[in-house]
Specification:
Elements lengths: L6 H23 L39 E4 L1 H6 L5 H5 L5 E4 L11 E3 L2 E2 L4 E3 L2 E2 L11 E8 L3 H4 L6 E7 L7 E9 L4 E10 L5 E12 L7 E13 L5 E14 L5 E2 L33 E18 L2 E19 L2 E2 L8 E2 L3 E23 L2 E25 L2 H4 L3 E2 L13 E25 L4 E17 L9 E19 L2 E12 L19 E14 L4 E18 L9 E19 L4 E16 L18 E10 L4 E10 L2 E2 L8 E2 L2 E11 L4 E8 L7 E4 L3 E4 L4 E9 L1
């Protein structure tokens, strides 16, 4: 086993000293220019267009940012009746959802451009922790940045990353309250109030109460209650401070959906369904309402301070403490023996009693300078983070009669109400993983003239983990240490003020302990991180008097040292970095106003994915598509204002067929298209009503793909929302 290394500090200190000294010289020697980065991006609820990224590391307008970035703002989320991160991401093509599996919980799990992005979700630029379903009641924008992102965000981000920008306290006063009632015994109440304390300070409070059944799924229901409190002072001055606290509680009936028929010789009545979904009603629920449950508590406190040294230099410090607790028992639908009968067992229950915690700190120097005859937009920073994962052994402390009595469920007519007499609890043992990350990074966008810009970025991470992986042996330890150097580079050509053509490149890393815990295979801790490189050639245009943004891009991402089974007889349980995977494709998108009355957000993604090299038992994967990577996917949503009071909206989402893995025994999910609509009417300047319909055709479709099961998408549902502002 490798041991944690502190040599990352040795690299960081001298680099930080040199960079800081250089920037200080620039700041004192150059003429002062206006620093636009200190200004908050204005987001209009009457337009879907967002012109600037929420990330301070993307210093240029999105029109001149050399990568595909899609921003889902409040206007889109309101019109589409978005509740969760997963709902918001349906507006972005090229993303496919994954189901919870034995080692990973249900929640926001996804692939972007063919590669897993489950660990690449950020809130206000800080990596979010744990697997759970994120509500957007306190979210201003959801930003998806595609392409390699390790230079920006650290480990992972091979296909892209997702950043959620939270609502902040601001000057001015407003109160927004809404109540939604739906056809699934559901309600959703929200209250958002902003109070101006004085000329430079404000307090903002967001409240949420949400409960309801899941359309198209028997018995499944979810409940969320949350509060977010934000306070800011120094607004409009050169010294600003804000602090945000959020608490969220979820009480859900977890859903692992329906089993795949994972065999080429199933029982006779399942012939024709080999390596596909079981031929059953998609409403079927195979859990037990008396045994299955999911309780989640999430806390976070984030503080940020910004100080303008001058009009062209700002320092920004941000820190967060966060915890996510999860306790759950979930029945995974599995055949008792698919080759002999169709019964579903209750014996594959998944238990979790976990605690994820995070302490993170970021310090950035952000500046705009004239140096050597060119304009430089510079970001230099350091990031420190400690992450901890604790999992208590959660077992049946009194016998589980569903298992002990060998009770089976009927595939075609499952019974979720069978009496359950067991009790689950901790047995006193646990496992724990701790991770430390220290990073330094620097970005510079050089404006050569009105037509040309050049961007470069570098980042160094020292990432170490200790994983106590044995419930019965507290001394058992697997340690990893990775020193990761990431980079990106791009050139942007502006043929006119409203357009750009760009070429970008970068790399990303996936350490063996990317998710803190590491595989217990004998050599997993000794493997270097997987590395990927990506290239993107694209163009962006601001059309129709700058009301409509249109983008197109060709991209190619290749992982050159993917983990693959060892082919050697004496170490067949080991892995080697001998695999290759690649995804090539095309992205098209348009967002904004076609006319003053007609708004659209649309995207299309083509992905050609393939395992190009593998070893050992994985050799059969060569030529197969990557997991959860549809060749074609598209999303469109458009609204039209009939009058100042009345508007209509319609939308569709299309996803091509995809597979749950790349092995020869992979299961296939068919493609689907679903349609939504909206009608909104402003009763007065303060009161509005909105009717939404989702999955209008009540389409049965496979939404989230797991290895042994899949989760169907939501069925048809309608809801009416009343919103009042005062």
């Amino acid at each position: 086993m490798s041991k944690p290394s502190n040599k990352g500090y040795a690299y960081i200190k001298p680099i930080a000293a040199v960079v800081t000294a250089t920037l200080s010289t620039w700041a004192s020697a150059q003429d002062v220019q206006e620093l636009s980065v200190t200004k908050v991006q204005t987001k209009s609820e009457s337009s879907y267009v967002v012109e600037k990224s929420a990330s301070h590391k993307h210093t240029q307008p999105l029109l001149d940012t050399a990568k595909t970035v899609t921003v889902i703002n409040q206007a889109v989320m309101k019109d589409r009746n978005v509740d969760s991160l997963q709902d918001a991401l349906r507006n972005v093509s090229g993303i496919s959802l994954a189901a919870g599996e034995g080692g990973a919980p249900t929640g926001d799990s996804m692939s972007i451009r063919g590669f897993s992005a489950t660990n690449d979700i950020f809130v206000d630029g800080i990596r979010d922790i744990a697997g759970y379903t994120r509500d957007v009641y306190n979210i201003e924008t959801v930003e998806v940045a595609k392409g390699p992102g390790s230079a920006v965000s650290g480990r992972g981000a091979t296909g892209g990353s997702v950043n959620l920008e939270t609502k902040k306290a601001t000057l001015g006063e407003f109160n927004d309250v809404s109540l939604r009632l739906g056809t699934e015994n559901d309600y959703r109440g929200r209250f958002d109030t902003n109070i101006e304390v004085n000329e430079t300070s404000a307090l903002r409070i967001n409240l949420l109460a949400d409960k309801g059944d899941v359309a198209g799924r028997d018995y499944v229901e979810n409940e969320t209650n949350a509060i977010a409190v934000a306070f800011a002072t120094g607004l409009g001055t050169d010294s600003r401070f804000d602090i945000n606290f959020e608490y969220q509680r979820q009480d859900n009936l977890p859903d692992y959906g329906i089993a795949w028929v994972r065999d080429d010789s199933p029982v006779a009545e399942l012939v024709g369904s080999e390596f596909g979904p079981a031929p059953v009603d998609f409403d079927n629920f195979y859990g037990n309402i008396h045994r299955d449950y999911e309780d989640i508590e999430a806390y976070s406190t984030t503080a940020r301070y910004e100080y303008d040294f001058s009009q062209n230099t700002m320092v920004r410090a941000q820190a967060r403490i966060g915890t996510v607790k999860r306790e759950s028992v979930t029945t995974a639908p599995r055949f008792f023996s698919v080759t002999t009968d169709t019964d579903i067992t209750f014996g594959d229950e998944k238990t979790r009693d976990t605690n994820n915690s995070l302490v993170a700190f970021q310090l950035d120097l952000i500046g705009n300078y004239e140096f050597a005859g060119f304009t430089h937009d510079v970001v230099v920073g350091v990031e420190l983070a400690n992450e901890t994962f604790t999992r208590h052994n959660f077992v049946a402390t009194t016998p589980d009669n569903l298992i002990e009595d060998g009770i089976r469920n009927d595939l075609y007519n499952p019974d979720a109400t069978i009496a359950f007499t067991g009790v689950y609890g901790r047995d006193g043992t646990s496992i724990e993983a701790k991770a430390k990350n220290q990073a330094i990074y620097a970005f510079d966008t050089v404006t050569l003239n009105k037509q040309w810009e050049v961007t470069g970025g570098i980042r160094f991470d020292s990432f170490t983990t200790d994983y106590h992986n044995d419930y019965n042996d507290p001394s058992a330890l697997i340690s990893t240490s990775d020193d990761l150097f990431s980079w990106n580079a791009a050139v942007v050509y502006k043929p006119s003020e409203n357009g750009s053509i760009y070429l970008g490149a970068g790399n990303s890393f996936n350490p063996s302990a990317e998710g803190i815990t590491v595989s217990t295979r004998s050599n997993a801790a000794d493997l270097d991180a997987e590395e990927s490189r990506s290239y993107e050639l694209g163009t962006k245009w601001s059309l129709v008097d700058n009301r409509l943004q249109a983008n197109a891009a060709l991209f190619s991402t290749e992982k050159t040292n993917a983990r693959t089974d060892s082919p050697f007889a004496d170490d067949t349980s080991d892995e080697l970095l001998g695999g290759k995977q690649r995804v090539r494709g095309l992205e098209l998108s348009a967002t904004g106003l076609i006319t003053k009355e007609w708004t659209v957000i649309a995207s299309y993604t083509y992905q050609d994915s393939e395992v190009t090299k593998a070893l050992g038992d994985d050799i059969s994967q060569i030529g197969n598509e990557l997991a959860r990577t549809p060749k074609n996917s598209a999303s469109v949503w458009t609204t039209y204002d009939v009058s100042e009071q009345l508007s209509f909206g319609v939308g569709a989402q299309y996803l091509d067929e995809r597979y749950n893995g790349s092995t020869s025994t992979r299961s296939r999910a068919g493609g689907y298209t679903i349609f939504d609509f909206m009608v909104a009417y402003d009763v007065s300047k303060d009161l509005s009503l909105q009717l939404n319909g989702e999955n209008l055709g009540d389409k049965d479709y496979i939404d989230q793909l797991g290895g042994g099961h899949f989760v169907p998408g939501s069925g048809r549902k309608f809801s009416l929302t009343a919103s009042y502002s005062f």
